[in-house]
Amino acid sequence: xxxxxxxxxxxxxxxxxxxxxxxxxxxxxxxxxxxxxxxxxxxxxxxxxxxxxxxxxxxxxxxxxxxxxxxxxxxxxxxxxx
Length: 82
Known about the structure:
Layout: H1 3-7, H2 9-23, E1 26-27, H3 29-40, H4 46-59, E2 62-67, E3 70-75
Antiparallel strand pairs: 1-3, 2-3
Helix pairs in contact: 2-3, 3-4
C-alpha cells in the first residue's frame, strides 16, 4: 500500500461510501479494514477506518450504534446509483 492512497481522503472515502451502499449491514472498524486491505493492500488501516466511519456518520450516511460492548454503524439512507 502506498502512503498516497492512505492519505487521499476523497478517493478512499468514495470507495468506502460505495462499499457501504453496495453491501449495507453493520459497519465496524474491522469490516472497513477488510475493505481497505482488499482495495488498497495491507497496511495500518485501523486509525484510518475509525476516522472514516466517523466522517460518514457526520455526512449522515451511517448511524452510530454505541453499545457498551460493541460500537458499530448502520446505513442511515440509501442512494440510487446508476
